[in-house]
Design brief:
Chain lengths: 291, 321
Amino acid sequence: MVEDKSIGSRLFNWTNITLLTIISLLTILPFFHVVASSFTTSAELAAKRFVLIPTEWSIAAYQYIFSTDTVFRALGVSIGVTFFGTLWSMLLSVLTAYGLSRKDLVGRRFIMFFIIFTMLFNGGMIPTFLVVKETGLLDSYLSLIMPVSINAFNMIILKSFFQGLPDGLEESAKIDGCNDFGILFRIVLPCSMPVIATISLFYAVTYWNTYMHAILYLNDATKWPIQVLLRQIVVLAGGMNYDGANYTDVPPPEQTVKMAVIVVATIPVLLVYPFLQKHFAKGALLGSMKE
Amino acid sequence: MDNDLVVVKKNSTVIPKASRRTELWKRIKKNKFMYLMILPGILYFLIYKYLPMYGLIIAFQDYKPYLGISGSEWVGFDHFKRLFSEPDFWFIFRNTLLLFVLQLVIFFPIPIFLALMLNEVRNQAFKKTVQTIVYIPHFMSWVIIVSICYVILTLDGGVVNGILESLGFQKINFLLSDEWFRPMYILQVIWREAGWGTIIFLAAIAAVDPQLYEAARMDGANRLQQMIHITLPAIKSVIVVLLILKIGDILELGFEHVFLLLNASNRNVAEIFDTYVYTTGLQQGQFSYSTAVGFFKGIVGLILVMFANWLAKKSGEEGVY
Protein backbone atom coordinates (compact mmCIF):
# COMPACT_ATOMS: atom_id res chain seq x y z
CA MET A 1 0.00 0.00 0.00
CA VAL A 2 1.47 3.34 -1.04
CA GLU A 3 1.52 5.78 1.86
CA ASP A 4 -0.34 9.00 1.33
CA LYS A 5 2.05 11.85 2.11
CA SER A 6 -0.21 14.85 1.44
CA ILE A 7 -0.58 17.65 3.98
CA GLY A 8 -4.18 16.67 4.62
CA SER A 9 -3.19 13.15 5.40
CA ARG A 10 -0.46 14.28 7.78
CA LEU A 11 -2.80 16.67 9.53
CA PHE A 12 -5.27 13.80 9.85
CA ASN A 13 -2.55 11.58 11.33
CA TRP A 14 -1.45 14.12 13.88
CA THR A 15 -4.97 14.97 15.00
CA ASN A 16 -5.72 11.29 15.35
CA ILE A 17 -2.57 10.53 17.31
CA THR A 18 -3.09 13.52 19.57
CA LEU A 19 -6.66 12.52 20.34
CA LEU A 20 -5.70 8.92 21.04
CA THR A 21 -2.90 10.07 23.32
CA ILE A 22 -5.36 12.23 25.27
CA ILE A 23 -7.83 9.34 25.51
CA SER A 24 -5.10 6.99 26.77
CA LEU A 25 -3.95 9.53 29.33
CA LEU A 26 -7.48 10.11 30.58
CA THR A 27 -7.93 6.35 30.90
CA ILE A 28 -4.77 5.74 32.83
CA LEU A 29 -4.31 8.93 34.87
CA PRO A 30 -6.85 8.09 37.58
CA PHE A 31 -4.99 4.85 38.28
CA PHE A 32 -1.68 6.69 38.42
CA HIS A 33 -3.09 9.31 40.70
CA VAL A 34 -4.41 6.67 43.08
CA VAL A 35 -1.17 4.69 43.17
CA ALA A 36 0.94 7.81 43.66
CA SER A 37 -1.37 9.18 46.34
CA SER A 38 -1.21 5.94 48.27
CA PHE A 39 2.57 6.36 48.56
CA THR A 40 2.54 9.91 49.83
CA THR A 41 1.77 11.51 53.18
CA SER A 42 -1.73 12.69 54.03
CA ALA A 43 -0.34 16.19 54.44
CA GLU A 44 1.05 16.32 50.93
CA LEU A 45 -2.12 14.90 49.43
CA ALA A 46 -4.26 17.38 51.34
CA ALA A 47 -2.10 20.29 50.21
CA LYS A 48 -1.53 19.36 46.57
CA ARG A 49 -4.64 17.31 45.86
CA PHE A 50 -3.31 16.10 42.51
CA VAL A 51 -0.31 13.87 42.99
CA LEU A 52 1.32 12.02 40.13
CA ILE A 53 4.83 11.70 41.58
CA PRO A 54 5.01 12.09 45.35
CA THR A 55 7.69 14.44 46.68
CA GLU A 56 7.34 13.04 50.17
CA TRP A 57 7.28 9.28 49.90
CA SER A 58 5.53 7.39 52.63
CA ILE A 59 4.26 3.90 53.21
CA ALA A 60 2.26 4.93 56.27
CA ALA A 61 -1.02 4.13 54.54
CA TYR A 62 0.10 0.59 53.84
CA GLN A 63 1.45 0.18 57.37
CA TYR A 64 -1.93 1.32 58.61
CA ILE A 65 -4.03 -1.05 56.51
CA PHE A 66 -1.77 -3.98 57.28
CA SER A 67 -1.58 -3.18 60.99
CA THR A 68 -4.66 -5.28 61.66
CA ASP A 69 -5.43 -8.56 60.00
CA THR A 70 -8.65 -7.29 58.34
CA VAL A 71 -7.08 -6.58 54.95
CA PHE A 72 -4.88 -9.68 55.10
CA ARG A 73 -7.88 -11.83 55.83
CA ALA A 74 -9.92 -10.28 53.02
CA LEU A 75 -7.02 -10.77 50.60
CA GLY A 76 -6.73 -14.37 51.77
CA VAL A 77 -10.42 -14.96 51.11
CA SER A 78 -10.17 -13.40 47.65
CA ILE A 79 -7.08 -15.43 46.75
CA GLY A 80 -8.67 -18.64 48.00
CA VAL A 81 -11.97 -18.06 46.24
CA THR A 82 -10.17 -17.05 43.05
CA PHE A 83 -7.89 -20.11 43.09
CA PHE A 84 -10.44 -22.79 43.97
CA GLY A 85 -13.23 -21.10 42.06
CA THR A 86 -11.16 -20.98 38.89
CA LEU A 87 -10.17 -24.64 39.24
CA TRP A 88 -13.76 -25.72 39.84
CA SER A 89 -15.18 -23.60 37.04
CA MET A 90 -12.56 -24.79 34.58
CA LEU A 91 -13.15 -28.44 35.47
CA LEU A 92 -16.90 -28.15 34.97
CA SER A 93 -16.67 -25.93 31.90
CA VAL A 94 -14.10 -28.09 30.13
CA LEU A 95 -16.01 -31.31 30.81
CA THR A 96 -19.31 -29.81 29.64
CA ALA A 97 -17.76 -28.11 26.62
CA TYR A 98 -15.91 -31.21 25.51
CA GLY A 99 -18.98 -33.38 25.89
CA LEU A 100 -21.02 -30.93 23.83
CA SER A 101 -18.35 -30.60 21.16
CA ARG A 102 -19.09 -34.17 20.04
CA LYS A 103 -21.35 -33.72 17.03
CA ASP A 104 -22.93 -37.17 17.14
CA LEU A 105 -24.12 -36.70 20.72
CA VAL A 106 -27.84 -37.47 20.92
CA GLY A 107 -29.73 -34.54 22.43
CA ARG A 108 -26.87 -32.08 21.86
CA ARG A 109 -29.07 -29.38 20.34
CA PHE A 110 -31.54 -29.64 23.18
CA ILE A 111 -28.81 -29.39 25.82
CA MET A 112 -27.32 -26.35 24.08
CA PHE A 113 -30.73 -24.68 24.08
CA PHE A 114 -31.12 -25.63 27.73
CA ILE A 115 -27.88 -23.79 28.48
CA ILE A 116 -28.30 -20.79 26.16
CA PHE A 117 -31.79 -20.14 27.50
CA THR A 118 -30.27 -19.38 30.90
CA MET A 119 -28.43 -16.47 29.24
CA LEU A 120 -31.72 -14.96 28.15
CA PHE A 121 -33.85 -15.53 31.17
CA ASN A 122 -33.24 -16.42 34.78
CA GLY A 123 -35.04 -16.66 38.06
CA GLY A 124 -33.59 -13.40 39.28
CA MET A 125 -32.05 -12.35 42.53
CA ILE A 126 -34.56 -13.48 45.13
CA PRO A 127 -35.36 -17.01 43.88
CA THR A 128 -31.62 -17.58 43.37
CA PHE A 129 -30.99 -16.35 46.89
CA LEU A 130 -33.58 -18.81 48.18
CA VAL A 131 -31.93 -21.70 46.31
CA VAL A 132 -28.54 -20.72 47.72
CA LYS A 133 -30.13 -20.65 51.14
CA GLU A 134 -31.86 -24.00 50.66
CA THR A 135 -28.65 -25.65 49.47
CA GLY A 136 -27.07 -24.53 52.73
CA LEU A 137 -24.49 -22.19 51.24
CA LEU A 138 -25.34 -19.00 53.13
CA ASP A 139 -22.30 -17.68 55.00
CA SER A 140 -20.10 -20.23 53.28
CA TYR A 141 -17.32 -19.39 50.81
CA LEU A 142 -18.93 -21.92 48.51
CA SER A 143 -21.75 -19.42 47.96
CA LEU A 144 -19.27 -17.31 45.97
CA ILE A 145 -18.41 -20.26 43.73
CA MET A 146 -21.24 -22.77 43.34
CA PRO A 147 -23.94 -20.41 41.99
CA VAL A 148 -21.56 -19.20 39.26
CA SER A 149 -19.80 -22.52 38.51
CA ILE A 150 -20.17 -22.22 34.74
CA ASN A 151 -20.30 -19.07 32.69
CA ALA A 152 -22.25 -20.08 29.59
CA PHE A 153 -20.26 -17.70 27.36
CA ASN A 154 -16.94 -19.14 28.50
CA MET A 155 -18.24 -22.68 28.08
CA ILE A 156 -19.31 -21.89 24.51
CA ILE A 157 -15.88 -20.43 23.69
CA LEU A 158 -14.29 -23.67 24.89
CA LYS A 159 -16.79 -25.73 22.96
CA SER A 160 -16.16 -23.92 19.68
CA PHE A 161 -12.44 -24.35 20.21
CA PHE A 162 -12.75 -28.09 20.82
CA GLN A 163 -14.94 -28.40 17.75
CA GLY A 164 -12.25 -26.77 15.67
CA LEU A 165 -9.65 -29.40 16.58
CA PRO A 166 -8.88 -31.94 13.83
CA ASP A 167 -10.87 -35.19 14.14
CA GLY A 168 -7.78 -37.26 13.44
CA LEU A 169 -6.45 -36.46 16.90
CA GLU A 170 -9.21 -38.33 18.62
CA GLU A 171 -9.36 -41.17 16.12
CA SER A 172 -5.74 -42.14 16.62
CA ALA A 173 -6.15 -42.04 20.40
CA LYS A 174 -9.20 -44.25 20.17
CA ILE A 175 -7.29 -46.82 18.20
CA ASP A 176 -4.75 -46.83 21.02
CA GLY A 177 -7.57 -47.80 23.38
CA CYS A 178 -8.12 -44.50 25.19
CA ASN A 179 -11.59 -43.78 26.49
CA ASP A 180 -13.17 -40.32 26.19
CA PHE A 181 -11.71 -39.10 29.48
CA GLY A 182 -8.25 -40.24 28.43
CA ILE A 183 -8.59 -38.46 25.09
CA LEU A 184 -9.71 -35.24 26.77
CA PHE A 185 -6.98 -35.09 29.37
CA ARG A 186 -4.06 -36.60 27.45
CA ILE A 187 -4.67 -35.36 23.92
CA VAL A 188 -7.22 -32.56 23.68
CA LEU A 189 -6.21 -30.45 26.67
CA PRO A 190 -2.49 -30.31 25.85
CA CYS A 191 -3.47 -29.06 22.39
CA SER A 192 -5.74 -26.37 23.86
CA MET A 193 -3.46 -24.59 26.27
CA PRO A 194 -3.93 -21.06 24.84
CA VAL A 195 -7.72 -21.17 25.12
CA ILE A 196 -7.52 -22.90 28.51
CA ALA A 197 -5.23 -20.13 29.75
CA THR A 198 -7.54 -17.41 28.41
CA ILE A 199 -10.69 -18.82 29.93
CA SER A 200 -8.94 -19.54 33.24
CA LEU A 201 -7.87 -15.93 33.40
CA PHE A 202 -11.41 -14.76 32.55
CA TYR A 203 -12.74 -16.85 35.40
CA ALA A 204 -9.96 -15.74 37.75
CA VAL A 205 -10.66 -12.06 37.07
CA THR A 206 -14.39 -12.61 37.62
CA TYR A 207 -13.79 -14.38 40.93
CA TRP A 208 -11.31 -11.74 42.05
CA ASN A 209 -13.76 -8.98 41.20
CA THR A 210 -16.82 -10.60 42.77
CA TYR A 211 -18.58 -8.56 45.40
CA MET A 212 -22.31 -8.77 44.80
CA HIS A 213 -22.55 -12.41 45.79
CA ALA A 214 -20.59 -11.74 48.96
CA ILE A 215 -23.01 -8.96 49.85
CA LEU A 216 -25.99 -11.17 49.11
CA TYR A 217 -24.82 -14.39 50.70
CA LEU A 218 -22.26 -13.59 53.41
CA ASN A 219 -23.49 -11.89 56.55
CA ASP A 220 -20.34 -12.65 58.48
CA ALA A 221 -17.98 -9.70 57.95
CA THR A 222 -14.92 -11.82 58.71
CA LYS A 223 -15.60 -13.77 55.52
CA TRP A 224 -15.67 -10.77 53.21
CA PRO A 225 -13.41 -10.77 50.16
CA ILE A 226 -11.28 -7.72 49.41
CA GLN A 227 -13.80 -6.10 47.04
CA VAL A 228 -16.46 -5.93 49.73
CA LEU A 229 -13.95 -4.54 52.20
CA LEU A 230 -12.94 -1.95 49.61
CA ARG A 231 -16.55 -0.87 49.20
CA GLN A 232 -16.87 -0.71 52.95
CA ILE A 233 -13.79 1.43 53.45
CA VAL A 234 -14.04 3.76 50.45
CA VAL A 235 -17.68 3.98 49.46
CA LEU A 236 -19.55 3.46 52.70
CA ALA A 237 -17.24 5.02 55.28
CA GLY A 238 -17.49 8.32 53.48
CA GLY A 239 -21.23 8.59 53.81
CA MET A 240 -22.35 7.07 50.51
CA ASN A 241 -24.17 4.51 52.59
CA TYR A 242 -27.46 3.13 51.44
CA ASP A 243 -27.68 -0.13 53.36
CA GLY A 244 -28.44 1.64 56.58
CA ALA A 245 -27.01 -1.34 58.39
CA ASN A 246 -23.37 -0.40 58.23
CA TYR A 247 -23.16 3.00 59.85
CA THR A 248 -20.45 3.31 62.45
CA ASP A 249 -19.15 6.15 64.57
CA VAL A 250 -15.57 5.51 63.55
CA PRO A 251 -14.14 8.54 61.74
CA PRO A 252 -13.78 7.94 57.99
CA PRO A 253 -10.35 6.67 56.95
CA GLU A 254 -7.89 9.13 55.50
CA GLN A 255 -7.62 9.61 51.75
CA THR A 256 -4.22 7.92 51.53
CA VAL A 257 -5.60 4.87 53.30
CA LYS A 258 -8.48 4.62 50.85
CA MET A 259 -6.01 4.93 47.99
CA ALA A 260 -3.86 2.14 49.44
CA VAL A 261 -6.83 -0.23 49.75
CA ILE A 262 -7.79 0.46 46.13
CA VAL A 263 -4.23 -0.32 45.05
CA VAL A 264 -4.16 -3.57 47.02
CA ALA A 265 -7.43 -4.70 45.43
CA THR A 266 -6.24 -3.73 41.94
CA ILE A 267 -2.65 -4.99 41.88
CA PRO A 268 -3.36 -8.72 41.34
CA VAL A 269 -5.41 -8.00 38.22
CA LEU A 270 -2.69 -5.68 36.89
CA LEU A 271 -0.13 -8.42 37.53
CA VAL A 272 -1.95 -10.96 35.37
CA TYR A 273 -2.92 -8.36 32.77
CA PRO A 274 0.18 -8.87 30.55
CA PHE A 275 -0.57 -12.60 30.40
CA LEU A 276 -4.22 -11.90 29.84
CA GLN A 277 -3.54 -9.45 27.08
CA LYS A 278 -1.75 -11.97 24.90
CA HIS A 279 -4.90 -13.99 24.37
CA PHE A 280 -7.97 -12.16 25.46
CA ALA A 281 -8.81 -10.35 22.25
CA LYS A 282 -9.15 -13.69 20.50
CA GLY A 283 -11.23 -15.05 23.36
CA ALA A 284 -13.52 -12.06 23.28
CA LEU A 285 -14.05 -12.51 19.55
CA LEU A 286 -14.79 -16.21 19.84
CA GLY A 287 -17.27 -15.42 22.57
CA SER A 288 -19.16 -13.03 20.38
CA MET A 289 -19.51 -15.59 17.64
CA LYS A 290 -22.60 -17.60 17.09
CA GLU A 291 -22.75 -21.08 18.55
CA MET B 1 -48.83 -50.65 19.84
CA ASP B 2 -50.46 -47.38 18.89
CA ASN B 3 -47.11 -45.68 18.75
CA ASP B 4 -45.70 -48.27 16.40
CA LEU B 5 -48.52 -47.62 13.97
CA VAL B 6 -47.83 -43.91 13.98
CA VAL B 7 -44.20 -44.52 13.15
CA VAL B 8 -45.10 -46.71 10.23
CA LYS B 9 -47.47 -44.09 8.87
CA LYS B 10 -44.93 -41.30 9.08
CA ASN B 11 -42.13 -43.10 7.29
CA SER B 12 -42.43 -44.25 3.75
CA THR B 13 -39.78 -46.91 4.22
CA VAL B 14 -41.07 -49.01 7.03
CA ILE B 15 -38.52 -49.46 9.78
CA PRO B 16 -39.67 -51.38 12.82
CA LYS B 17 -39.55 -49.03 15.76
CA ALA B 18 -37.68 -51.53 17.87
CA SER B 19 -34.62 -51.48 15.63
CA ARG B 20 -34.64 -47.68 15.44
CA ARG B 21 -34.69 -47.63 19.17
CA THR B 22 -31.67 -49.93 19.39
CA GLU B 23 -29.96 -47.75 16.81
CA LEU B 24 -30.52 -44.68 18.98
CA TRP B 25 -29.54 -46.59 22.08
CA LYS B 26 -26.29 -47.63 20.38
CA ARG B 27 -25.45 -44.02 19.59
CA ILE B 28 -26.16 -42.98 23.15
CA LYS B 29 -24.15 -45.85 24.56
CA LYS B 30 -21.20 -45.08 22.33
CA ASN B 31 -21.01 -41.66 23.95
CA LYS B 32 -21.67 -42.81 27.51
CA PHE B 33 -18.55 -41.14 28.85
CA MET B 34 -19.52 -37.92 27.13
CA TYR B 35 -22.84 -37.89 28.99
CA LEU B 36 -20.95 -38.52 32.19
CA MET B 37 -18.81 -35.48 31.44
CA ILE B 38 -21.79 -33.24 30.78
CA LEU B 39 -23.63 -34.41 33.87
CA PRO B 40 -22.02 -32.08 36.47
CA GLY B 41 -22.61 -29.11 34.17
CA ILE B 42 -26.23 -30.07 33.62
CA LEU B 43 -26.73 -30.45 37.35
CA TYR B 44 -25.27 -26.98 37.89
CA PHE B 45 -27.67 -25.40 35.42
CA LEU B 46 -30.58 -27.35 36.86
CA ILE B 47 -29.89 -26.39 40.45
CA TYR B 48 -28.70 -22.80 40.16
CA LYS B 49 -30.49 -21.67 37.00
CA TYR B 50 -33.66 -23.74 36.54
CA LEU B 51 -34.56 -24.23 40.19
CA PRO B 52 -34.71 -20.43 40.66
CA MET B 53 -36.95 -20.26 37.58
CA TYR B 54 -39.25 -22.70 39.31
CA GLY B 55 -38.93 -20.49 42.39
CA LEU B 56 -40.53 -17.67 40.41
CA ILE B 57 -43.90 -19.11 41.34
CA ILE B 58 -43.57 -17.42 44.71
CA ALA B 59 -44.35 -14.23 42.79
CA PHE B 60 -47.92 -15.54 42.78
CA GLN B 61 -47.89 -16.50 46.44
CA ASP B 62 -47.64 -14.88 49.80
CA TYR B 63 -44.38 -16.69 50.40
CA LYS B 64 -43.38 -17.35 53.99
CA PRO B 65 -39.92 -18.91 54.42
CA TYR B 66 -41.08 -21.19 57.23
CA LEU B 67 -44.02 -22.47 55.16
CA GLY B 68 -42.03 -23.03 51.97
CA ILE B 69 -43.40 -22.99 48.43
CA SER B 70 -45.80 -25.85 49.04
CA GLY B 71 -47.27 -24.33 52.20
CA SER B 72 -47.56 -20.69 51.21
CA GLU B 73 -50.85 -19.12 50.24
CA TRP B 74 -51.64 -18.33 46.59
CA VAL B 75 -52.49 -14.72 45.82
CA GLY B 76 -52.60 -14.67 42.01
CA PHE B 77 -51.48 -11.42 40.43
CA ASP B 78 -51.73 -9.31 43.59
CA HIS B 79 -48.01 -8.49 43.71
CA PHE B 80 -47.99 -7.41 40.08
CA LYS B 81 -51.04 -5.23 40.65
CA ARG B 82 -49.26 -3.69 43.60
CA LEU B 83 -46.13 -3.05 41.52
CA PHE B 84 -48.06 -1.15 38.85
CA SER B 85 -49.93 0.92 41.41
CA GLU B 86 -46.86 1.76 43.53
CA PRO B 87 -45.96 5.43 43.19
CA ASP B 88 -42.34 4.25 43.00
CA PHE B 89 -43.02 2.20 39.88
CA TRP B 90 -43.02 5.08 37.43
CA PHE B 91 -39.89 6.77 38.61
CA ILE B 92 -38.06 3.44 38.69
CA PHE B 93 -39.34 2.74 35.20
CA ARG B 94 -38.20 6.19 34.07
CA ASN B 95 -34.76 5.77 35.67
CA THR B 96 -34.24 2.37 34.10
CA LEU B 97 -35.33 3.65 30.70
CA LEU B 98 -33.16 6.77 30.90
CA LEU B 99 -30.02 4.85 31.80
CA PHE B 100 -30.74 2.58 28.85
CA VAL B 101 -31.14 5.54 26.50
CA LEU B 102 -27.84 6.94 27.78
CA GLN B 103 -26.15 3.63 27.07
CA LEU B 104 -27.59 3.49 23.59
CA VAL B 105 -27.14 7.09 22.50
CA ILE B 106 -23.94 8.09 24.28
CA PHE B 107 -22.00 4.93 25.02
CA PHE B 108 -22.77 2.78 22.00
CA PRO B 109 -21.14 4.93 19.25
CA ILE B 110 -17.94 5.54 21.21
CA PRO B 111 -16.23 2.17 20.64
CA ILE B 112 -16.99 2.56 16.92
CA PHE B 113 -15.26 5.94 16.76
CA LEU B 114 -12.40 4.65 18.84
CA ALA B 115 -11.98 1.62 16.56
CA LEU B 116 -12.03 3.85 13.47
CA MET B 117 -9.38 6.07 15.02
CA LEU B 118 -7.21 3.13 16.05
CA ASN B 119 -7.49 1.71 12.57
CA GLU B 120 -6.05 4.90 11.09
CA VAL B 121 -2.90 4.69 13.19
CA ARG B 122 0.04 3.71 10.97
CA ASN B 123 2.57 3.23 13.76
CA GLN B 124 1.88 -0.28 15.06
CA ALA B 125 3.75 0.17 18.34
CA PHE B 126 1.70 3.26 19.18
CA LYS B 127 -1.51 1.46 18.26
CA LYS B 128 -0.63 -1.49 20.50
CA THR B 129 0.19 0.81 23.40
CA VAL B 130 -3.12 2.65 23.13
CA GLN B 131 -5.00 -0.65 22.92
CA THR B 132 -3.17 -2.02 25.95
CA ILE B 133 -4.12 1.04 27.95
CA VAL B 134 -7.76 1.38 26.98
CA TYR B 135 -8.47 -2.31 27.63
CA ILE B 136 -7.24 -2.15 31.23
CA PRO B 137 -10.33 -0.74 32.99
CA HIS B 138 -12.48 -3.58 31.65
CA PHE B 139 -10.67 -5.93 34.02
CA MET B 140 -11.25 -3.78 37.08
CA SER B 141 -14.26 -4.56 39.22
CA TRP B 142 -17.03 -1.99 39.52
CA VAL B 143 -16.00 -1.56 43.13
CA ILE B 144 -12.57 -0.40 41.98
CA ILE B 145 -13.95 1.87 39.24
CA VAL B 146 -16.47 3.48 41.60
CA SER B 147 -13.94 3.70 44.44
CA ILE B 148 -11.45 5.53 42.24
CA CYS B 149 -14.15 7.96 41.11
CA TYR B 150 -15.14 8.37 44.71
CA VAL B 151 -11.71 9.38 45.97
CA ILE B 152 -11.27 11.71 43.00
CA LEU B 153 -14.67 13.36 43.23
CA THR B 154 -15.26 13.53 46.96
CA LEU B 155 -15.76 16.89 48.67
CA ASP B 156 -13.10 16.30 51.30
CA GLY B 157 -9.80 16.09 49.53
CA GLY B 158 -10.84 14.95 46.05
CA VAL B 159 -8.68 16.22 43.23
CA VAL B 160 -11.56 17.44 41.04
CA ASN B 161 -13.07 19.62 43.71
CA GLY B 162 -9.56 20.80 44.57
CA ILE B 163 -9.10 22.04 41.02
CA LEU B 164 -12.57 23.61 40.94
CA GLU B 165 -11.81 25.44 44.15
CA SER B 166 -8.44 26.74 43.03
CA LEU B 167 -10.05 28.03 39.83
CA GLY B 168 -12.52 29.91 41.96
CA PHE B 169 -15.58 27.75 41.27
CA GLN B 170 -18.02 26.35 43.77
CA LYS B 171 -17.35 22.84 44.99
CA ILE B 172 -19.71 20.24 43.55
CA ASN B 173 -21.04 17.37 45.59
CA PHE B 174 -20.92 14.89 42.68
CA LEU B 175 -21.51 11.80 44.77
CA LEU B 176 -24.66 12.84 46.52
CA SER B 177 -26.36 14.97 43.90
CA ASP B 178 -29.27 14.12 41.66
CA GLU B 179 -28.04 15.87 38.59
CA TRP B 180 -24.56 14.33 38.57
CA PHE B 181 -25.66 10.73 38.94
CA ARG B 182 -26.38 10.09 35.27
CA PRO B 183 -23.26 11.79 33.88
CA MET B 184 -21.19 9.91 36.44
CA TYR B 185 -22.86 6.61 35.55
CA ILE B 186 -22.32 6.94 31.81
CA LEU B 187 -18.76 8.27 32.16
CA GLN B 188 -17.86 5.27 34.29
CA VAL B 189 -19.40 2.93 31.72
CA ILE B 190 -17.38 4.66 29.01
CA TRP B 191 -14.20 4.53 31.05
CA ARG B 192 -14.56 0.83 31.77
CA GLU B 193 -16.00 -0.53 28.53
CA ALA B 194 -15.27 1.77 25.57
CA GLY B 195 -11.80 0.35 24.95
CA TRP B 196 -12.90 -3.24 25.29
CA GLY B 197 -15.80 -2.57 22.95
CA THR B 198 -13.42 -1.74 20.08
CA ILE B 199 -12.18 -5.33 19.76
CA ILE B 200 -15.06 -6.61 17.71
CA PHE B 201 -15.14 -3.53 15.45
CA LEU B 202 -11.38 -3.70 14.89
CA ALA B 203 -11.74 -7.32 13.84
CA ALA B 204 -14.48 -6.37 11.38
CA ILE B 205 -12.36 -3.52 10.00
CA ALA B 206 -9.37 -5.83 9.57
CA ALA B 207 -11.46 -7.93 7.18
CA VAL B 208 -12.02 -5.06 4.75
CA ASP B 209 -10.36 -5.58 1.34
CA PRO B 210 -7.37 -3.19 1.05
CA GLN B 211 -8.01 -2.84 -2.69
CA LEU B 212 -11.11 -0.80 -1.87
CA TYR B 213 -8.94 1.86 -0.24
CA GLU B 214 -6.52 1.72 -3.14
CA ALA B 215 -9.32 2.36 -5.59
CA ALA B 216 -10.77 5.16 -3.47
CA ARG B 217 -7.40 6.87 -3.33
CA MET B 218 -7.15 6.68 -7.12
CA ASP B 219 -10.44 8.52 -7.21
CA GLY B 220 -8.94 11.19 -4.95
CA ALA B 221 -10.69 10.31 -1.70
CA ASN B 222 -8.90 11.65 1.34
CA ARG B 223 -8.46 9.72 4.59
CA LEU B 224 -11.62 10.99 6.20
CA GLN B 225 -13.66 10.22 3.09
CA GLN B 226 -12.19 6.72 2.94
CA MET B 227 -13.17 6.21 6.54
CA ILE B 228 -16.72 7.38 5.97
CA HIS B 229 -17.32 5.71 2.61
CA ILE B 230 -15.41 2.46 2.93
CA THR B 231 -14.65 1.47 6.51
CA LEU B 232 -17.95 2.49 8.02
CA PRO B 233 -20.18 0.74 5.44
CA ALA B 234 -17.96 -2.34 5.69
CA ILE B 235 -18.64 -2.78 9.38
CA LYS B 236 -22.30 -1.81 9.15
CA SER B 237 -23.58 -5.33 9.71
CA VAL B 238 -21.47 -5.75 12.84
CA ILE B 239 -22.81 -2.45 14.13
CA VAL B 240 -26.39 -3.54 13.45
CA VAL B 241 -25.93 -6.87 15.24
CA LEU B 242 -24.35 -5.24 18.27
CA LEU B 243 -27.00 -2.55 18.38
CA ILE B 244 -29.66 -5.24 18.41
CA LEU B 245 -27.87 -7.12 21.17
CA LYS B 246 -27.77 -3.89 23.11
CA ILE B 247 -31.52 -3.42 22.74
CA GLY B 248 -32.00 -6.91 24.12
CA ASP B 249 -29.92 -5.81 27.08
CA ILE B 250 -32.24 -2.94 27.93
CA LEU B 251 -32.78 -4.00 31.48
CA GLU B 252 -29.25 -5.25 32.16
CA LEU B 253 -27.84 -1.93 33.22
CA GLY B 254 -25.42 -3.39 35.70
CA PHE B 255 -26.88 -3.92 39.12
CA GLU B 256 -23.36 -4.15 40.55
CA HIS B 257 -22.55 -0.73 39.17
CA VAL B 258 -25.71 1.18 40.04
CA PHE B 259 -25.89 -0.39 43.47
CA LEU B 260 -22.51 1.15 44.31
CA LEU B 261 -23.56 4.61 43.18
CA LEU B 262 -26.95 4.53 44.85
CA ASN B 263 -27.42 6.39 48.10
CA ALA B 264 -30.25 7.95 50.01
CA SER B 265 -29.79 11.36 48.38
CA ASN B 266 -29.76 10.27 44.73
CA ARG B 267 -32.38 7.55 45.01
CA ASN B 268 -34.77 9.65 42.89
CA VAL B 269 -32.62 9.14 39.83
CA ALA B 270 -30.56 6.07 40.68
CA GLU B 271 -33.13 3.51 41.79
CA ILE B 272 -33.64 0.97 38.99
CA PHE B 273 -35.56 -2.31 38.95
CA ASP B 274 -32.57 -4.39 40.08
CA THR B 275 -31.77 -2.23 43.08
CA TYR B 276 -35.46 -2.06 43.94
CA VAL B 277 -35.60 -5.87 43.98
CA TYR B 278 -32.65 -5.91 46.38
CA THR B 279 -34.10 -3.30 48.73
CA THR B 280 -37.61 -4.69 48.88
CA GLY B 281 -36.54 -8.33 48.83
CA LEU B 282 -33.41 -8.79 50.87
CA GLN B 283 -33.52 -5.71 53.05
CA GLN B 284 -37.23 -5.57 53.75
CA GLY B 285 -37.88 -9.29 53.44
CA GLN B 286 -40.78 -8.99 50.97
CA PHE B 287 -39.70 -12.07 49.04
CA SER B 288 -42.84 -12.54 46.98
CA TYR B 289 -43.27 -8.92 45.97
CA SER B 290 -39.62 -8.47 45.00
CA THR B 291 -39.71 -11.73 43.04
CA ALA B 292 -42.70 -10.37 41.14
CA VAL B 293 -40.71 -7.21 40.34
CA GLY B 294 -37.78 -9.31 39.15
CA PHE B 295 -40.10 -11.53 37.12
CA PHE B 296 -41.66 -8.53 35.40
CA LYS B 297 -38.19 -7.24 34.54
CA GLY B 298 -37.05 -10.65 33.29
CA ILE B 299 -40.08 -11.10 31.04
CA VAL B 300 -39.69 -7.64 29.52
CA GLY B 301 -36.01 -8.43 28.93
CA LEU B 302 -36.83 -11.75 27.26
CA ILE B 303 -39.46 -10.17 25.01
CA LEU B 304 -36.99 -7.48 23.96
CA VAL B 305 -34.30 -10.06 23.16
CA MET B 306 -36.78 -11.96 21.01
CA PHE B 307 -37.94 -8.77 19.35
CA ALA B 308 -34.38 -7.63 18.69
CA ASN B 309 -33.47 -10.98 17.24
CA TRP B 310 -36.53 -10.97 15.02
CA LEU B 311 -35.61 -7.48 13.89
CA ALA B 312 -32.09 -8.67 13.07
CA LYS B 313 -33.36 -11.51 10.94
CA LYS B 314 -35.86 -9.26 9.25
CA SER B 315 -33.24 -6.66 8.35
CA GLY B 316 -31.31 -9.38 6.55
CA GLU B 317 -28.70 -9.92 9.24
CA GLU B 318 -28.13 -13.26 10.83
CA GLY B 319 -30.00 -13.60 14.08
CA VAL B 320 -27.97 -13.87 17.20
CA TYR B 321 -29.79 -16.75 18.85
